[in-house]
Structure formats: structure tokens, C-alpha cells
Amino acid sequence: MSTRFRSGLGAALVLTLTAGCGSDGSESSANYGNILNSPAGLVLVEEEHQAGWMRAECFTCHEVRNMHTENRTGLPDCPPVSPPPATPAPGCIDLASIQQTIQQQGQQSCMQCHGPNGVPTPAPTPTPVES
Q1: pTM: predicted TM-score of the whole model, two decimal places
Q2: Is pLDDT above 90 for 9?
Q3: Within a domain: residue 32?
Q4: Dist. CA 92–CA 36, nearest whole Å
């Protein structure tokens, strides 16, 4: 196979794969039902997240603008707090605060609520001891 052909084939493959990524449609929250009723609550376990288990890149499959746009937990929405950044009352869901955390922290925010998704946590680097 010629280099030129392989380059063209590679470019076509990249275009094909990226054409299906993302969405230019309206915002629509993915409906996973009430995740609090899941086997481990908010923390993902392999049996309910098989396609994404052990994948660290959450945003590859889950589109940021569609995350946490609808409260399906059965808990009430938090009333507005004033003045911001006051902490919402416990036992309610503050979608705006969750979305703000996602925007500020990116994929690192996912693990705070949903656990490591089977991704091994790297061992901490030992601190050198001075002699």
C-alpha cells in the first residue's frame, strides 16, 4: 500500500470518526433514570456502566452541555441561595452549582460524585527523604 493511499485512508477514517462526535442539536439531558436507585447510588459500578467502565475520558461519550440539566433524583431542587457562593441546603439538588463545577474542573469533577469508574488510581509518588 502506498504512503499516499495510507495517508488518504487515515484522513478519511479521522473525518468519519469525528463526524459523529458531539451534537449541534438542542440541549437534552441524557436520561439514566434516578441514579440514586443504582446499585451503588451515585458511584458507578461495572454492571451499570459496562461500555464506559475503566475509561477515564468521560467527555468522550458524555457531552458536557447535556450533563445534569434535569433533576431525576426525586430530591427537590435547591432554592436559590443568597448571596452566592452560599452553600445550598442539604437534601436538595443544585444543578447550576453542579454544572459550574463541571465547567471549572472538567473531567476531574466526575470522580467526585461518580467514583473512579474502575480506572486505577496511580500510586502516590513517595516524598524523597533528606539524609
Answers
A1: 0.66
A2: no
A3: yes
A4: 13
Q: How far apart are CA 126 and CA 78, in angstroms?
A: 42
| Residue entry with cell 459550574 | 100
Structural domains of the chain, count: 1
Residue listed under C-alpha cell 430530591: 75
Query: Does residue 12 lie in a domain region?
Result: no
- Which of 63, 67, 71, 60 lies closest to 29, judged by CA? 67
DSSP state of 46: G
DSSP state of 120: P
Residue 123, number of CB atoms within 10 A of its CB? 6
Would residue 87 count as lying in a domain?
yes
| Residue 38 contacts residue 45 (beta carbons within 8 Å) | yes
> So what's the pLDDT on residue 86?
64
Higher pLDDT, 17 or 105: 105
pLDDT digits (tens, 9 = 90+) for 60-104: 999 999 999 999 999 999 987 766 566 667 789 999 999 999 999
Alpha helix (H) ranges present in the chain? 3-19, 95-105, 108-114
